[in-house]
Design goal:
By secondary structure, the chain is of the alpha/beta class. The chain contains 4 helices and 8 strands. The strands form 2 sheets. Strands 2-8-7-4-5 form a 5-stranded mixed β-sheet. Strands 1-3-6 form a 3-stranded mixed β-sheet, with no helix packed on it. The structure holds 2-acetamido-2-deoxy-beta-D-glucopyranose (5 copies).
């Protein structure tokens, strides 16, 4: 029989693992003001840091507004020609899956009233020093790979501990 305290320790490690694995942030455009005319979204964007894997989400009245992903020309000129994507649900979650600058505008003319936002997405930061992957940086490889290796190492550790606590039949 596995003791209750062993189960509790494993539970804590499991929580730690899950918490570490889901560090993506959901950036709600405009915070509690949402996606509406007359808001300076440059101020909102300047107040946070975006990383690859984060989400940007737009909350709005779907009968009135929408979201288009455009390039810099579309952003500067409020045009949706050649748009890279469009969303209309009123609660849209858009993955920021690349380290680059993203541009979003509202497609019904409200872009001219400020409904435009651009965010610069950064590569994932390196894992904190002392983490399992800290001394195994492969040369020439990007930060996300290092981060992923860290997670794999942590999972292996948790699984190994689980098999010690619960017996090898557990996995
Ligand atoms: C929004 O704020 C930024 C930073 O203060 C400013 O440069 C920009 O002109 C403002 N945009 C509008 C449309 O007021
Ligand atoms: C910037 O972020 C802080 C902390 O989240 C918040 O209190 C503040 O209102 C934000 N400022 C703007 C302009 O969004
Ligand atoms: C964008 O607007 C500028 C100035 O308003 C104009 O010179 C330019 O041709 C426009 N670009 C496109 C692609 O429409
Ligand atoms: C943006 O897309 C439009 C339409 O596809 C294109 O004409 C324009 O050159 C693009 N602008 C940039 C900066 O890539
Ligand atoms: C919106 O996106 C869909 C595909 O996701 C595309 O078929 C449609 O033409 C787009 N609408 C506009 C107005 O760009």
């Amino acid at each position: 029989m596995v003791s209750t305290s062993a189960q509790f320790i494993f539970f804590c490690l499991f929580i730690l693992f899950t918490a570490t694995a889901t560090t993506a942030t959901d950036h709600i455009v405009g915070a509690n003001k949402g996606w509406n005319p007359g808001i300076n979204y440059t101020l909102w964007a300047n107040n946070q840091t975006f990383y690859v894997g984060d989400l940007i989400s737009f909350r709005y009245q779907k009968t009135q507004y929408n979201v288009f992903q455009v390039n810099q020309t579309g952003y500067d000129n409020c045009t949706t020609e050649g748009a890279l994507g469009n969303w209309t649900s009123g609660k849209d979650f858009i993955p920021l899956n690349e380290a680059k600058r993203f541009y979003f505008i509202c497609g019904n003319g409200q872009c001219f009233n400020g409904m435009k936002v651009t965010v610069l997405v950064h590569p994932l930061p390196p894992p904190p020093s002392g983490s399992i992957a800290a001394n195994s940086t492969p040369s020439g490889s990007a930060a996300p790979v290092v981060f992923h290796k860290g997670l794999v190492g942590l999972r292996a550790f948790v699984l190994a501990l689980a098999s010690i606590l619960f017996g090898s039949g557990w996995i």
